[in-house]
């Protein structure tokens, strides 16, 4: 069958042919996608409820003028299955997939909240930070050279060749915010602040170093877009979704992304600052403990006394730098976040200035911040 975007009618017909719905029964379907790249359908029939996510051959946020590969859907389901082989409780169940039609069928997580939306509504997820720290520690270690060894890791890496989506990340996070690019979304009143950022040569050099790391390091399988909009949660459970940007990259990138978005949530709700920065602390400490514990069984010659300490310090520095890049990107680049965009204008502009200032500080000082306590102290010192 050749690729065609599903409609609410055709997706039900197709799923029925797979035996996931009863023949002849009435099925209810709605398109619920609010992302930038895909169609998402929820189908219900009796006690059955499932999600069908289908890639579009272009970016919804821009339109057909920005074509995209459909292969990302296959990479996404591969990543979900890989993560499930390590930490099944932290990802949704994959019920089916098709490479040509570019879809994945998933369990319905209707009882969960999108974490960003929940935060905006004032909700709390007491297990989230610990779960995400464990997810990162487990998946980053188990997909690295340190677990199965370099030969097996190199074999797996070929399955995640994802140049088009990596190119999006490289441009939107590491390149476009640092010049007058068409993709940027810069409010007029913020223009002088942004032009000052463009003139900061030291900052741009450090961002280039981080971009080089993103391009050249192949440490482990990354989610590639791990933010609070890519996590579902309840009071007890956490599920990581949408790894279509998955590829083998630097350990610190995913961790930096979630640190940045926990920080961004404090810009919207200042009363949650202690809670969110405690979450930042918990994410890192859980990641570090999980990764270090697993490293004790690492294959030779990696498990050398003292090496893991230096490795974790490098990951920590990268985490800080990538968090800084994400703060800047979300303040002035394409695809802003509701943590900022839903604020009243005066407050929004001030918060975006603070995001630029904090992002710059994190990038420049990432090697000077030596502990998670120092990082949290710096984050908490931001005037909001």
Overall domain count:
2
Q: Going by CATH, what is the homologous superfamily of the largest domain?
A: Aminoglycoside phosphotransferase (APH), C-terminal lobe
Please tell me the overall pLDDT: 95
Remind me, CATH topology of the largest domain?
Aminoglycoside 3'-phosphotransferase, Chain: A, domain 2
Structural class label: alpha+beta
Distance between the termini: 54 Å
User: Helical segment tally?
Assistant: 15
* Biggest pleated-sheet summary: 5 strands, antiparallel
State the strand order across the main sheet.
1-2-3-7-6
Strand content is 5-15%
- What fraction, in percent, of the residue positions are helical? 40-55%
CATH architecture descriptor of the largest domain: Alpha-Beta Complex
Explain this structure to me?
The protein is of the alpha+beta class. The protein has two domains: 8-107, Phosphorylase Kinase, domain 1 (2-Layer Sandwich), CATH 3.30.200; 113-380, Aminoglycoside phosphotransferase (APH), C-terminal lobe (Aminoglycoside 3'-phosphotransferase, Chain: A, domain 2), CATH 3.90.1200. Helices cover 51% and strands 13% of the residues. It has a five-stranded antiparallel beta sheet, sandwiched between helices. The longest helix has 26 residues, at 307-332.
């Amino acid at each position: 069958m050749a690729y065609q975007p599903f409609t609410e009618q055709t997706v039900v017909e197709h799923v029925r042919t797979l035996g996931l719905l009863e023949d002849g029964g009435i099925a209810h379907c709605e398109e619920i996608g609010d992302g930038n790249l895909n169609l998402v359908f929820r189908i219900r029939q009796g006690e059955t409820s499932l999600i069908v996510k289908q890639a579009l051959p272009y970016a919804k946020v821009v339109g057909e003028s920005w074509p995209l590969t459909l292969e990302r859907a296959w990479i996404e389901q591969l990543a979900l299955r890989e993560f499930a082989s390590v930490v099944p409780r932290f990802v949704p169940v994959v019920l089916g997939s098709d490479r040509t039609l570019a879809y994945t069928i998933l369990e319905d997580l209707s009882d969960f909240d999108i974490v960003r939306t929940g935060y905006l509504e004032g909700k709390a997820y007491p297990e989230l930070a610990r779960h995400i720290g464990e997810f990162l520690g487990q998946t980053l270690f188990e997909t690295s050279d340190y677990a199965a060894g370099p030969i097996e890791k190199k074999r797996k890496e070929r399955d995640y060749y994802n140049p088009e989506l990596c190119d999006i990340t490289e441009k939107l996070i590491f390149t476009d915010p640092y010049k007058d690019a068409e993709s940027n979304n810069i409010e007029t009143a913020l223009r002088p602040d942004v032009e000052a950022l463009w003139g900061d040569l030291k900052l741009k050099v450090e961002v280039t170093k981080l971009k080089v790391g993103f391009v050249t390091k192949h440490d482990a399988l990354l989610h590639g877009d791990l933010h609070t909009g890519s996590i579902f949660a309840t009071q007890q459970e956490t599920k990581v979704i949408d790894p279509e940007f998955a590829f083998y990259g630097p350990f610190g990138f995913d961790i930096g992304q979630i640190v940045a978005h926990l920080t961004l949530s404090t810009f919207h709700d200042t009363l949650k600052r202690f809670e969110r920065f405690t979450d930042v602390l918990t994410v890192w400490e859980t990641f570090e403990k999980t990764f270090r514990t697993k490293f004790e069984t690492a294959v030779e010659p990696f498990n050398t006394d003292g090496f893991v300490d230096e490795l974790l310090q490098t990951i920590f520095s990268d985490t800080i730098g990538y968090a800084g890049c994400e703060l800047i990107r979300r303040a002035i680049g394409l695809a802003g976040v509701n943590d900022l965009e839903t604020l009243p204008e005066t407050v929004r502009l001030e918060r975006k200035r603070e995001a630029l200032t904090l992002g710059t500080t994190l990038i420049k000082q990432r090697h000077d911040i030596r502990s998670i306590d120092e990082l949290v102290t710096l984050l908490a010192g931001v005037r909001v």
